[in-house]
Design goal:
alpha/beta, Rossmann fold, Helicase, Ruva Protein, domain 3, 2 domains, 7-stranded mixed β-sheet, 9 strands
Length: about 260
C-alpha cells in the first residue's frame, strides 16, 4: 500500500487465505442475492480492500466489517473514516464476540469456511450470502448416500437451507486460487429443538469417522469408545439398516432421541 492509498504494493498473505474477488459484476451479484434492506445491519468478514463493503453500505443501514490483517484494517479505517455507516473491526472473526446483525454478506478466507459457518449459524440472522470453494459448497447440498455427504452436510442442513446460486471462475480472484468458487445463500429453518444438541453433534462427528460402516457396528464402536457409561441395552433400540453416510438429518435426530430415552430409563 503506497502513500496515495492504492494497494498495488500489497502482498497477499497465503496464511490468511487472501484471495480477493476483483470482478465488480460478481460483487454486485453477491449483494443482489442478499436482498439487503435499508433498515438492516450487515456483517462482512474479510473485507480486504473494501470493494464489497462499498457496495453493501449503499444498500444497508450499517456495515460491520471484521478484518484480521492489521495492514488492511488500517487501510479500511482510513478509506471509510468519513462514512458513519461503516465500522471496521480489526481482529479474528473466530475469536470475536459478534455484534448484532441482520445479514452476513462476505467473501471470507476459504481456510476458515467450516469453522466460520458453524459459528454463524448459531446466531440469529435472516440471510447469509458467502462465497466458498466449489468443493466445499457442493458438500453443503449433497444428498445422503453420495460421496460428498458428511458431517458438514448434516450439521448445516439441520438448522439451515443452503442453496448454490452462481459459479465464480478462479480467474475472478487475485491472486488466482486453484479452484472455482460458488456464491451460496443460507437461510435459517425450523428444526427439532427437543433433540439434545451436544449428543447430536457428538454422534454425527463420531459416526462419520466410519462413514461407510453399517450404523449398528459404527454405533457400538462409538459407544464403547466415547460414552461407555451408556447401558448396553442401548443397542436394542430400533437402528436403521443403513450405512452412516446414508443417514438423513431426521435419522440422526431420531437416533439421538432414542439414545437419550434409553439412557434415562
Amino acid at each position: 500500500m503506497d502513500k496515495r492509498g492504492t494497494h498495488y504494493s500489497f502482498v497477499p498473505k497465503k496464511r490468511l487465505g487472501q484471495n480477493f474477488l476483483i470482478d465488480s459484476r460478481l460483487l454486485k451479484k453477491i449483494v443482489f442475492h442478499a436482498e439487503i434492506l435499508p433498515t438492516e445491519i450487515v456483517l462482512e468478514i474479510g473485507p480486504g480492500f473494501g470493494a464489497l463493503t462499498q457496495i453493501i453500505q449503499a444498500k444497508a443501514r450499517r456495515v460491520i466489517a471484521i478484518e484480521k490483517d492489521p495492514v488492511l484494517a488500517e487501510f479500511l479505517q482510513e478509506k471509510f473514516k468519513t462514512n458513519p455507516k461503516v465500522e471496521i473491526i480489526m481482529g479474528d472473526v473466530l475469536d470475536q464476540t459478534l455484534p448484532e446483525y441482520d445479514k452476513v454478506v462476505a467473501t471470507p478466507p476459504y481456510n476458515i469456511s467450516s469453522k466460520l459457518l458453524f459459528q454463524l449459524i448459531q446466531r440469529s440472522y435472516r440471510v447469509i450470502v458467502l462465497t466458498f470453494q466449489k468443493e466445499f459448497a457442493d458438500r453443503l447440498v449433497s444428498k445422503p448416500g453420495t460421496k460428498n455427504y458428511g458431517r458438514l452436510t448434516v450439521m448445516i442442513n439441520r438448522k439451515t437451507k443452503p442453496k448454490l446460486l452462481e459459479n465464480i471462475p478462479k480467474k475472478s480472484f487475485r491472486p488466482q486460487p486453484k479452484v472455482d468458487s460458488v456464491i451460496v445463500k443460507i437461510i435459517p429453518k425450523e428444526y427439532n429443538e427437543t433433540v439434545d444438541e451436544k449428543l447430536f453433534s457428538d454422534l454425527v462427528r463420531g459416526l462419520f469417522t466410519q462413514r461407510r460402516r453399517k450404523l449398528r457396528s459404527s454405533l457400538k464402536h462409538y459407544i464403547d469408545k466415547e460414552i461407555p457409561y451408556f447401558p448396553m441395552e442401548i443397542l436394542n433400540i430400533e437402528i436403521p439398516d443403513k450405512r452412516v453416510y446414508q443417514m438423513t438429518v431426521e435419522d440422526f435426530e431420531q437416533l439421538t432421541k432414542n439414545l437419550i430415552k434409553v439412557k434415562v430409563l
